[in-house]
Amino acid sequence: MSGPIHQHHRTAASEPPLIQGLLVGVALTFLTLFLFVPLVAVFYEALRKGMGVYLAAITDPYALSAIRLTLLSAVCAVPLNMLFGVAAAWAITKFEFRGKSLLITLIDLPFAVSPVIAGLIYVLLFGAHGWLGPALTQHDIKIIFAVPGIVLATVFVTVPFIARELIPLMQAQGTEEEEAALVLGASGWTTFWRITLPNIKWGLLYGVVLCTARAMGEFGAVSVVSGHIRGLTNTLPLHIEILYNEYQFAAAFACASLLTLLALAILGIKTFIERYTFSQRRPPAGGDTP
Amino acid sequence: MSIDIRGLYKRFGNFTALDHIDLKIPAGQLVALLGPSGCGKTTLLRIIAGLETADQGSIWFDGQETGSRHVRERRVGFVFQHYALFQHMTVFENIAFGLRVRPRKQRPSETQIRAKVHELLALIQLEWLAERYPSQLSGGQRQRIALARALAVEPQVLLLDEPFGALDTKVRKELRRWLRRLHDEIHVTSVFVTHDQEEALEVSDQIVVMNHGRIEQIGTPEAVYDTPATPFVYQFLGNINLFHGRAHSGWVRLGGLRVQAPEYQDAQHAPAMAYVRPHDIDLLREPEDSDSTLPATVNRIAILGSLVRLELRQTSDGEIAEVEMTRERFAADPLQIGDLVFVKPRHLRVFLQEEAATEASVPMHWHGDGGGI
Amino acid sequence: MMPPQLRQPSVLPGFGLTLGFTVAYLCLIVLIPLAMAFLEAFQLGWREFWSVVSAPRVMASYRLTFGAALLAAAINTGFGLIVAWVLVRYHFPGKRLVDALVDLPFALPTAVAGITLTTLYAGNGWLGQFLKPLGIKIAFTPTGIIVALVFISLPFVVRTVQPVLEDLEAEVEEAAASLGADRWQIFQRVIFPAIRPALLTGFTLAFARAIGEYGSVIFIAGNLPMVSEITPLLIVSKLEQYDYKGAAAVSVVMLILSFILLLLINLLQRWNRSRQA
Questions:
Q1: What would be an example GO MF term here (chain C) (predicted)?
Q2: Could you give the ipTM of this predicted complex?
Q3: How many CB pairs under 8 A join A and C?
Q4: B98 contacts in A (CB within 8 Å)?
Q5: 8 Å CB contact of A185 and B141
Q6: Residues B134-152: tens digit of each pLDDT
Q7: Least buried of B69, B339, C195, C240, by fewest C-beta within 10 Å?
C-alpha cells in the first residue's frame, strides 16, 4: 500500500527527468574536475616511474625521518587537544555561565587565522629575535626551527577540532543522564567515565580522527617555524615541497600518495562512524507496545 | 519519611520560579504537584531532590535539614520526565547502576545485586527485558525501568517529574493505575509533578495546586475539586461556567439571576464572578421565580458516552453556557435544539473581581466577556 | 535582590576545573601568541605601520587574496548548492561514494592538493593540455589561485546546505504545489528562502578559509610580486628577510579582517538556529 503512495509523493514534488539529469551532470562534472581527477592524478604521478622509484622515495632516510616527525607532532598535539576538547565541551555544555558565547568564539579562532600567521606568532614569541628569544638562548632552549616549535604550531591549528565535534553532541544529549547518575549516588568521576564518556565516544573518535588528519597534513604554520632542516625539522608535507621544488616529481607524489591514503582512510572512518551511529539512533521496528 | 519545606524561594534571572513555598508532606503519602507549565512545580521537585539549590528556605527530611547534603547522599529516587535511561547500558545494568557505584564498603556483592535487580524486574513485570537496551523499549517500558532504577537504591523519597507526560493516552491510564497499586505496596513517600488534572485526581492522596510559584491550595482530590480555594483552582480543575456580575450587601446579581453571598456582606456594587460546574446546573422547562433562573435556548447537543453535554445560549445577553447531565436524565425529558429552558445553578461559587483578575492568563473552556449589570 | 551570578548553580561537578583549564589553555596556546603579532606591529608606530600595510605590493596582495577568495567562495556557493541538491534529492549510481568524497579537501593536506593541481593544470598536464590551445593558462597565474581555493573550500557550502535540505519537509513543497505553484516558483519562494541562511554561512566559511590558505596556493600561483603573490606568502617573505615588524603588521590587518568574518559567521549561525527553532 505504501509503495504507490511513496511513488506518487516523489513525482508530486520533484523536477522533470531532464532537469534532474542536467543537475546531476553539472554536479558530477564539477566534482570530477576538482576532486576525482586530482585524486587519481596523485597515484598516477606517484607510480609513473614504476614501483622501484616509488618504494625508494618512501624509504629514503629523509622521507622516513619526515614521517617520524609528522607522527611525533600528531602524537603530541592530538592528546593535548583531546584533553582540551573534553574539558571545554564539559564546561560549555553542562553549565550556564556568562561569557559562554565569547568562549565558543575564541575556541573557533584558530580556524579563522591563516596558518602562516599561526607560525609567525610563535616565531615572534620564541624566535631568536622574539620576546622570549634571549631568555631561551641563555638557557640553550631551542623552540623555533626545532621540534617543539613544530609541535606548538600543530597544536595551534588543531585546537578547535575535537571541541567542535563534542560541543553540539553534548548539547543535544543534555544533562539528564548525568543528573540521574548523581541521584543514584555516583561520584563526579564515575559519572564522567561511566555515563558521559560512553555517550560521546563516537563523536570523540571522529574529532580525534579529524584532528590527526589536520595535524599530519599541516603545511603553512609548520613551514614558518620549521627552518626546513632535512632529517631534523622536516615534516612529510615539507619534505614533499622540497622534492617538488627539486623537480623530483615522482618522489614528491610518492610521499603525497601516503598522505592521500591517510586522507582516504579518514573519510572511510568518518563514513563508518556516521552510518554506525545513525543505525544506533534509529528506533527498532515494532517496539512501540507498552 | 516526611518532607517539610519551609520558605522556599528561587529565581532564574528575572523570573521568580518559587515564591516562598511552605509545604508539609506526611510520610508514606503519594502527593501530586499540579499546575500549568511554568508554575514552578518541576523546580520545586528538583530542589527537593537536590538537583537545584534554592535561593532561600530549607527542606527537612524527617526533621533533618538536607541543605548541606549533596544529591548523592540524599537517598532520593528521581524519575526524569524523559526517563534519562543510560542508553549504552542494558536494562539490567541501568537498574544495577545505583548499587554498583556505592563506595566499596557499602557495595553489595554481585549475587546480591543480581537478586535485587531481578526482584525489581519482577515488581515491574518486565523480567524478560533484562538484556535489552533502552532504545529497544517502548515508552511505557522505559518509564517502568526508570522507576525500577530509582527504587533500586531503596530511596527514602520517590520523586517523579511528569511521569506519564511522554506517553499516549491509553498507556498513560494503565501506568497511573499501576503506579497507584505499586505505591500501595511499597508505601514510600512519593511526590509527582503533573499538569494533567485527571492524573492528579485519580492517583494522589493529596494534591498541591501551584500557580506562578505559589501554592494555591493543598487538599485531597475531593476537597480540591469540590471546594476550590481560589478562582485559579476552580478554573484549572474541571470545566466551569463563568458569570459576570456585581456583589452588593450579601447578594450577587448575575444577569437575571440573584443569589445570596453572605461572605460579601460588606461589598458595595463590587464586580464579581461566579463559577458553576457544568454538572451543577439543573434545566427546567418552566421558570421558578423571576430571579432564581435564567432563560436560555439549546444551541447544540453532544452525546459523550454516558454523559450528555448541552450548549445553551442565554436569552438576555447571548452568552454561552455549558451543562452536563447523565444519559438517563436526558432521556427522561429529551431536549431538542432550539428548545427554551431555564437554567438553575445548584451550586455556585462567587469571587470578587479583584481576586479573579490576576488569573486572566488561565485558559478556560469558554469565557464570556463582560455582560453583567 | 540577588547578587548578579557568574553562573547558575548546578549539581554537576567540575565547573572550576574544566573552565579553568579551557581558559588557561586558550590563553597559552592561542591568545597570548596572537597578542604578540599586535605588540610587534604596534612597535612600528602608526605612521610606519600604515606605510607598511598600504605599500603598493601589499595592496596588490590584498586585492588578489580577497578577490580570489571571494570568487572561489562564489563558485563554490553555486556549484555547492547543486551538489548538495543532487546528493539530497536524486538517486544516481555511486552517490554514497561521491557523498563521502566531498570531504576530501578537508582531509587532504594542502601541499598535496597544491602539487597535484599544479601538475594537472600546467600546460602539459592532463587538464592544462586542453586549455592551452584555447589560450587559457591556469597554473602560474591568478586563475590558478582561484582553482586551488575552489578545491580547498569546496566542502563548506555542500556541508552547510545539505542538512538543511534534508530537514526541509516535503509537506511544505506539496502544500505550495497544491496551491498552484510550479516547480521553479516553489524553489524560488519556498525552498530558497529556507536554505538562504545556510548558503550564506557556507559562503562565509569558504571565504574565511580561502583567505588564509597558503599551502596549496604557493605551488600553483607562480608567486610574482604585484601579480600572483598572495598576502600569506608576503608575510612569509617578510619573515625570511627578518622583517618581523613588517610581517606582524600585515598579519594584524589579516587578523582583523578574519575576526570580523568570524563574528559574521557566528551571527549567521545564530540567525540560522533562530530560524530553524
A1: ABC-type sulfate transporter activity
A2: 0.88
A3: 296
A4: 184-186
A5: no
A6: 989 998 899 999 999 999 9
A7: C240
- Confidence at C6, pLDDT banded by 50, 70, 90: low
Could you tell me the three cell numbers for A263? Answer: 586522507
Query: Max CA-CA distance within chain A?
Result: 82
| Residue A246: alpha-carbon gap to chain centroid | 29
Q: How confident is the model at residue A18 (pLDDT cuts 50, 70, 90)?
A: confident
SS (H, E, C) A153-208: HHHHHHCHHHHHHHHHHHHHHCCHHHHHHHHCCCCHHHHHHHHHHHHHHHHHHHHH
Residue C68 confidence (pLDDT) above 60? yes
> How many CB contacts within 8 angstroms connect chain A with chain B?
81
Q: Give the minimum alpha-carbon distance from B51 to chain C in angstroms, rounded to a whole number.
A: 6
Mean pLDDT of chain C: 88
In a domain, C8, yes or no: no
Domains annotated for chain B, with CATH where assigned, are: 3-234 (3.40.50.300), 239-352 (2.40.50.100)
Strand arrangement, sheet containing B320-326: B281-284, B340-345, B294-304, B307-314, B320-326
Q: Using CA atoms, how far apart are residues A234 and A222, in angstroms rounded to an integer?
A: 9
Q: How confident is the model at residue B71 (pLDDT cuts 50, 70, 90)?
A: confident
Please report, for the domain that includes residue C223, its CATH number.
1.10.3720.10
Question: pLDDT-based confidence at B370, cuts 50/70/90?
Answer: very low
User: What is the residue range of C25's domain?
Assistant: 15-44
Among B242, B241, B240, B237, CA closest to B222: B237
Spatial distance between the Cα atoms of C33 and A130, rounded to a whole number of angstroms? 11
Instruction: Give the integer Cα–Cα distance in Å for C251 and C237.
Output: 12
Chain C residues touching residue A193 (CB < 8 angstroms): none
Q: What are phi and psi of B3, to 5 degrees?
A: -120, 130
Query: For the purposes of burial, counting CB atoms within 10 Å of the CB of C165, is it exposed (0-12), middle (13-18) or buried (19 or more)?
Result: middle
Burial class (CB in 10 A: 0-12, 13-18, 19+), B150: buried
Pairwise CA distance, residues B346 & A179, whole Å = 51
Who wins on pLDDT, B370 or B81?
A: B81
Bridge partners, B215 (sequence order): B210
Residue-level pLDDT at C277 = 53
Q: How far apart, in Å, are the Cα atoms of B347 and each of A148, B312, B350?
A: 86, 18, 10
Which one of B67-76, B277-286, C167-176 scores highest in mean pLDDT? B277-286
The total number of structural domains that make up chain A: 1
Residue A141 within any structural domain of the chain = yes
For residue B138, give the nearest of A176, A187, A289 by CB distance.
A289
Please count the residues of chain B: 373
Q: With respect to residue C184, please indicate whether it lies within any of the assigned structural domains.
A: yes
All three cell numbers of C35: 597578542
pLDDT higher than threshold 60 for residue B33: yes
Partner residue facing B71 (CB), from A182, A195, A199: A182
Measuring CA to CA, which residue among B120, B187, B104, B118 is closest to residue B152? B120
Q: Which residue, A105, A80, A82, is CA-closest to A92? A: A105
| Beta-carbon count within 10 A of B57 CB | 17
**pTM for the full model?**
0.84
Q: Which residues of chain A have a CB within 8 Å of the CB of B82?
A: 176
Q: Which residues of B261-282 are buried (b: 16+ CB within 10 A; e: fewer)?
A: beebeebeeeebbbbbbbbbbe
For residue B56, what is the nearest residue in chain C, using CA coordinates? C2
- Percentage, residues of chain B above pLDDT 90: 41
Q: Do C34 and C87 fall within a single domain?
A: no
pLDDT tens-digit readout, A63-95:
999 999 999 999 999 999 999 999 999 999 999
A193: Cβ contacts below 8 Å, ≥ 6 apart: none
**Which domain range does residue A233 map to?**
76-250
Q: Is A26 inside any structural domain?
A: no
